[in-house]
Predict the structure.
Amino acid sequence: MIDTLLQGLLLGGLYCLFALGQSLMFGVMRLTNTAQGDFIVLGAFAAVASAGLVAWHPALIGLALLPIAFAFGYALQRYVLNGTLGRDPLPSLVVTFGLAIVIQNGLQQLFSADPRSLATGTLATESLSFGPLTAGVLPLVIFGMAAACTLALQWLFGHTRIGRAFRAVSDDRETAELMGLDARKVYALATAIAFVTIAIAGVLQAMRTTIAPSDGPLLLLFAFEAVIIGGMGSFWGTFCGAMLLGVTQQIGFRIDPGWGIWIGHIVFLIVLVVRPQGLFPKTRG
Amino acid sequence: MSAISPSTTMSSAMPDAAPASEPTVVRSTVLSQVTLGVALVLVGVAASLPFWGESSWMREFVEIACYFIFASMWNLLAGYGGMVSIGQQAFFGIGGYAMLALGNFVGINPFVAIPIAALAAGIVAVPVSQVAFRLSGGYFAIGSWVIAEVFRLGIANVSAVGGGSGTSLTALRGIDKATRESTTYWVALACVVACVALVYLFLRSKQGLALLAIRDNEVAAESQGIAVKKMKLAVYVVAATGAGLAGALYFVGNLRISPDAAFSVNWTAFAVFMVVVGGIGRIEGPIIGALVFWALNKFFSDYGTWYLLGLGLLAIVVTLFFRQGLAGFVQQRWGWVAFPTQRTLKD
């Protein structure tokens, strides 16, 4: 039982990384990125493709991808997604949903539908023992990464100039612009940072398990559930939401492998009915 | 109401305001009357197709009819109700499985089971709305996708309907192929006509006007005494019923059902494509969109992933640069409206 709990928490670490970008983008500009999962998959495939070109350690490849992801996110928001923002949610949903389909089919064309993964050498099999409990080193690293990213984002939001700009445009875009902020650039910066977490999530996902072009939607749903369970606008909320989702799924898998994800969805829906604002809400929708 | 301002003739709500000439409300255009006539002739010709056409044409029509009905229901929900959902495939699948269960297990004729299955999808939508309506905007979209996944994974674990690998509609065995195909075709044609007529009449009614008001400004609509919540629920249930109808019809034509096919997000993806390209929030939208989709599918579907990639790109480009879609473009350029729902004053 305790083992299931531990494995669930470690799985939750991965889900937290899936969800942070979504949480950030929604928190700053109320943008629902339906291609979140597909961008994670894109990041994973970028790492897999790079690993075929250069013989670097996966961690180094991941590190090299981060500035590219940052620039990509900035440009995407600045030149495509900014044009879709507004009171009507339809344009941003259709554009990101369209991007999701483009990415899925583009990757399938380039890499075929076969699942791929990043070779990590011995890291994939190494494990640590704590008394009766055993945990893989890689899942522990992922968990630590999730906690570090959450901490970093929370700090960025609460204690820096950029964070203050994020909160200002989130609360009241017009007033923030009167104070001299360029909301379009602030939004672009938020998406750029979100894409850094997306790239981290993608690389770690490819190291931990296999990844296929059609995986995106499922990752999106997990990310989304973690954000909603945790409450909008709070990164620690997202972290806790991801943990709850990971543990629930793990317990579900233990009961019956066919029902694990289903039980995760059901717990999400129960939270939605009982506490629609999430566990630790900060921002109002 | 006592003050008479110069602008009162603009409003049909104050008929006593124009003493000189009673303003008349015009609700149709020349084009709309022509459209009605042409549509009646087309339906008449189409109804006779089983006597002179090929059976592959009928199969093709049934398939595109399902896409069209589903898209037009998505248009009602998103374009008029303002509820953008990526989870309407839930009701498509429920319609399909309800029809199959009624046919295979209860022994009801599958053709009779189609409307019952549609109603079943509508009934399921009532409790589902209680959960889905907790979210709004973009999160409503993904939340309804999760709900659709709950149904897909749930049915995939029910062994009575073949679990994840699905099952066949055995209730139609014993009916010869020609009868089955032409009956399916006629039912599909009737469903399409009913779908267009009902949506058109609904949007022209007082309730339709209320719905347009909600779409344009929810708070203002509420302040005018429109029961916004009730109206949204009604639209959600109607859209689910229509999606269920499309699902039931599709699997009567297809004879084989599986959770992955019935609850595929692609149904909604194609519906979004048709509605956005055709023109959202217009009755003509899904009709034009379905024709475009049918043509693209006919000529390019052999290209597989490139074809789907192109559809995604087209939807993005239309949303970014031609937000009104083809029907909106035509209306703005030439003022053509085939299905007018607005009220125009003529003095």
Observations:
- Residues 1-15 of chain B have pLDDT under 50 and may be disordered.
